Amino acid sequence: MYRKILKPVFDFLLALVLLIGLLPIFLLLIVLLYLFNKRNVFFFQERPGKNEEVFKIIKFKTMTDQKDASGNLLPDELRLTEMGKFVRKTSLDELPQLINVLKGDMSFIGPRPLLVSYLPLYNEEQKQRHLIKPGITGWAQINGRNTITWQQKFEFDVFYVNNISFLLDLKIFLLTIKKVIKREDINTAGVATTESFKGNE
C-alpha cells in the first residue's frame, strides 16, 4: 500500500508545498546563475526512469559552455563557476527536480537517474534499479554518494528497491538533510564531476 499508493501521494504533495515555499530561493538562484553562467540557468538531459522509460531531468546549470579554440568544451573544472560550486555543495542544483516529481517522472527517494548510455552496461541485478521511479536522493546517496564505487552504489540501489518502506524513506530523508547541512560526499577529492560508469569487469 505504501509503495503503490501513499508514496506517490506524498511525493506530489511534498513537491507542491516545497515549490511554493521555496519560490523566493528558486527565483534568486535563477537571477544569480543567469549572471554567473552567462545566461544559462537550467540543465536538461534525458535520463531513464521507471521501466527504463526516458524523461528529461531538470537541474540548475553549474557550468558555463565555454569552448577552446577548436570549438570543444573546456574541462569541467574550468567551466564550473564559483556560484556553481556553491550550488553543488549545498545541493541546490537539485531543486528544479521538484518539477520532475510533480510530473510523476521521479520520486523524492529512489535510485538516482543516471545516463541513458549506461543502460546497456548494467548486469541483470543492476537493472533492478529501474523497477521503480528514480529519486532526488536515495540509499546510495546517504551511504557515500560520490565517494563510493559504482558497484557499491548499485548494490545500495537494489537493496532499496527490495526493501521500500515508510521507515526506510524517513531515515533516508532525515540523513539526506544531515548530509546537505554538513556538505558531505559531494565529489571525490580533486575531481569536479563524478567519473563515468564504464561497465562491469
TrEMBL record:
Q: Which InterPro entries match?
A: Bact_transf
| Top-level taxon of the source organism | Bacteria
Query: Where would you find the membrane-spanning parts of this chain?
Result: 12-36
Show where the Bacterial sugar transferase domain sits. 7-182
Recite the UniProt keywords alphabetically: Membrane, Transferase, Transmembrane, Transmembrane helix
Q: Does the keyword Transferase apply?
A: yes
> Which GO terms of the molecular function aspect are on file?
phosphotransferase activity, for other substituted phosphate groups
Q: Which family does it belong to?
A: Belongs to the bacterial sugar transferase family.
Name of the protein: Lipid carrier--UDP-N-acetylgalactosaminyltransferase
Q: What is the lineage of its organism?
A: Bacteria, Pseudomonadati, Bacteroidota, Flavobacteriia, Flavobacteriales
